[in-house]
Specification:
heterodimer; A: mainly alpha; two-stranded antiparallel ribbon; globular; B: 179 residues
């Protein structure tokens, strides 16, 4: 089993052994980058098909079912179609910025995968001092790309989409980073590899010490994934695209392969941020129970990623889109205060390390639950349930 | 002066020059972002990983994005009428004074651990040590900066507050909403 766990690492070392020593650092980088570029776009292709099938099932329709077995080769047809389509650039558009925008949207998520450990010893670039920081840094570059796309198209819908996207990305970044910081506080490291290894401690003989199994970790994971859905422009936070009101928003004026690049960038961003959430809260490539340790680590990572994708598809099929003011209110008046409270709970957890586990849990849960209830009550008081009158 | 440094210096200087001379405000903002990325790369080349990433996170991710966002909210995003600011002389004077101050500080300051000129050296100061220094030795300046930023934030919020609505029950205001 050990060999199956490390099969990709040993394969890479075998290939490197065939090359002269001077080439090895370069070849190592090329192989790692090649693996990332092969795996995640393929995952994107599969996810689009699965998403369309699942959404179809939720909406009582078959979904794609013509290309290949059960329609599962639809992504190939879509890819060929977008490659052969005409690339239309509006006459009023700013040509250089319009051309650069899809690249600025796609490249950062690909870079982010470099520091993401997808299995034991399986990380392209381990930055022991600044891993998480690197991840957050490349995430911010997407905002500029979205703005470039929306502004350069010279179209009011695109501009509206870009403005919405900027406001949303800036607002949701704060709770995202604040909830990620709790893990850094408790683990004392910024390296994503170390953060995973700190969760390997076994409790009670079978349960692993995922950060999810602590009060601050549970609240942090919920806050993190809520903000992550917004950062990835997914429904119910997909206001920047909102095809029913502003016609796909910032990429209205893109066609053919550039449009496909936006699509790709969005999904790669979703994978990357889900991968970060898995690394921070869901134990990375660790199994949930110690007796499941024989399953290879990379299977755990991708199984968790797949499960999260299904949750996101399910959310998209279930929840209606928010309104812009609700979106902003949710970020600044609920997520931000709750993530600050969570930061406090993480500090409590650190300083009550000598207490019995149940007492720590109860204290942390209480400190989190009381403000939450108060916020919920305040929200309900300020926003009475709407009544609709229908003509009967 | 190596080739990489020359390239980075070209990126920084070119970006900065384009940012101040571009007629289109959005282009200027984007060139500024390119210039800041170049600065971050200079930091990385000197082995200051943390500083380089923070530079991009704060200046490109927040400052540059806020600048272009502000441009979006103003009316004339694409046709600025004035080429330079209204008072070029005072601007040049301020820039020269700032340059002189920085040059004086750099030339007289002592750097305990000057990094080697050639390869990327390991960071002399770990992130942990940096945090320690920031929150123990320099906690007062840090708090002062925090206070300043909070004051700026409150000021911005006050400016952005909507004007008080006319009282709908006030009879003297005929143009008020009829409801």
């Amino acid at each position: 089993m050990e060999s199956l766990d490390q099969i990709f690492v040993t394969a890479k070392h075998a290939v490197l052994g065939l090359l002269p020593a001077a080439w090895q650092p370069w070849a190592s980088a090329v192989i790692s980058v090649g693996a990332i570029l092969a795996v995640f776009p393929l995952l994107f292709a599969l996810t689009t098909v699965v998403e369309r099938k699942a959404l179809g099932r939720m909406q009582n329709r078959p979904g794609p079912n013509r290309v290949g077995p059960f329609g599962f080769l639809q992504f190939a047809a879509d890819g060929i179609k977008s490659l052969t389509k005409e690339d239309i650039v509006p006459r009023a558009a700013d040509p250089i910025v319009h051309f650069l925008a899809p690249l600025v949207v796609v490249i950062p998520p690909v870079l982010a995968f470099a520091v993401l450990p997808v299995g034991r010893h399986m990380v392209a670039l381990d930055l022991p001092e600044t891993g998480l920081l690197f991840f957050l840094m490349v995430g911010t570059a997407v905002e500029l790309g979205v703005f470039m796309a929306g502004w350069s198209s010279h179209n009011k819908y695109s501009l509206l989409g870009a403005m919405r996207a900027l406001a949303q990305l800036l607002s949701y970044e704060i709770p995202l980073i604040l909830s990620a910081i709790t893990v850094v506080m408790l683990s004392g490291s910024l390296s994503l590899v170390t953060l995973v290894e700190r969760q390997a401690e076994v409790h009670g003989g079978f349960l692993l010490g995922w950060n999810l199994f602590t009060p601050w970790g549970l609240a942090g994971a919920l806050l993190f994934f809520t903000a992550a859905v917004a950062e990835a422009n997914r429904s119910p936070f997909d206001l920047p695209e909102a095809e029913s009101e502003i016609v796909a928003g910032y990429f209205t004026e893109y066609s053919g392969f550039k449009f496909a690049l936006f699509f790709l960038g969005e999904y790669l961003g979703l994978f990357a941020i889900s991968g970060l959430g898995i690394t921070l809260f869901l134990g990375g490539w660790l199994p949930p129970f110690s007796f499941l340790g024989w399953v290879p680590s990379w299977i755990w990572f991708f199984a968790k990623l797949g499960a999260l994708m299904m949750v996101f598809i399910w959310l998209r099929g279930t929840l209606p889109r928010l309104r812009m003011d609700q979106l902003m209110q949710f970020a600044w008046q609920f997520l931000l205060p709750m993530s600050l409270v969570n930061l406090f709970v993480a500090g409590l957890w650190h300083f009550t390390a000598s207490w019995p586990l149940l007492a720590r849990w109860l204290l942390g849960a209480a400190v989190l639950a009381v403000p939450w209830m108060l916020y919920a009550r305040g929200f309900a008081a300020r926003h009475p349930r709407r009544t609709y009158r229908y003509v009967t | 002066m190596t080739l990489t440094f020359a390239l980075l210096a070209g990126l920084v200087l070119g970006g900065a020059f384009a940012a101040v001379t571009c007629r289109n405000r959005v282009h200027a903002g984007l060139f500024l972002a390119a210039c800041l990325v170049g600065l971050a790369l200079v930091f990385l080349r000197l082995g200051a990983e943390f500083l380089g990433f923070i530079q991009i996170l704060v200046y490109v991710g927040a400052v540059a994005v806020l600048i272009v966002f502000a441009i979006l909210l103003t009316r004339d995003a694409e046709s600025p009428r004035d080429r330079l600011a209204n008072a070029p002389a005072s601007g040049i004077l301020i820039a020269l004074a700032l340059f002189a101050l920085l040059a004086w500080a750099i030339s007289t300051g002592k750097f305990p651990a000057a990094p080697a000129e050639t390869a990327a050296v390991a960071p002399a100061l770990s992130v942990k040590a940096l945090g320690d220094r920031l929150f123990r030795e320099y906690v007062l300046p840090l708090q002062a900066v925090g206070l300043l930023l909070t004051a700026a934030l409150i000021g911005a919020a006050v400016i952005a507050l909507p004007a008080p609505k006319p009282d709908p029950l006030d009879d003297s205001d005929a143009s008020g909403p009829a409801s």
